[in-house]
Amino acid sequence: MINVNARHIMLYLIGFFLLVFGHPNFWDKITEADRKKRETKRIQQEAAVASAKPFEVQELVFDTASNTWKNKLPYFQTIHVGQVNLKAFRNSGSTTVETNDDENASDSL
User: For residue 41, what pLDDT is reported?
Assistant: First the structure.
C-alpha cells in the first residue's frame, strides 16, 4: 500500500503554491495568453460576419447613343501605388540624334 503522510501532502501543497504564486510574471503571462485567445476569437468572429455579407451589386445601363455602358451610381476606385518616383515620369526634354555627316557629328577622338 501507498503510505501517504500528512507532512508529505503539506510539502507538496507548499511546493505547488510556491510554483504557482512564487513566479513574478505567472499571472501576467496567464492573463496575456487569455487576452490573446479572446482577441483571436473576436477577430475570427468578425471575419466570419464579414465573409457572410453579400456582395455589392450595381446595375449597368447600356447607352445606345454613345454605345457605352453607364453606371447610374457614383463610385470610386482606390489604387494603391506605393512608393512612386515622380521624377521618372517627367519629360526629360528633347532627344538629339547624331548622324555621320560633317555638320552633326560629335567630336570623338
Answer: 95
C-alpha atoms less than 13 angstroms from C-alpha of 88 in its C-beta half-sphere: 3
Q: How far is CA 30 from CA 7, 14, 23, 73, 93, in A?
A: 30, 21, 12, 52, 66
Per-residue pLDDT, 35: 95
Inter-residue contact 104 to 98 (CB < 8 Å): yes
Spans of all domains in the chain: 6-89
Q: Is the pLDDT of residue 71 over 90?
A: no
Q: What pTM value is reported for the model? A: 0.36
Which residue is listed with cell 445601363?
A: 61
Do residues 58 and 75 make contact, with C-beta atoms less than 8 angstroms apart? yes
63 CB-near residues (< 8 Å, 6+ apart): 69, 70
- What is residue 59's predicted lDDT score, i.e. its pLDDT? 82
- Residue 73: name the closest of 87, 61, 88 by CA: 61
Q: What is the structure's pLDDT at 60?
A: 85
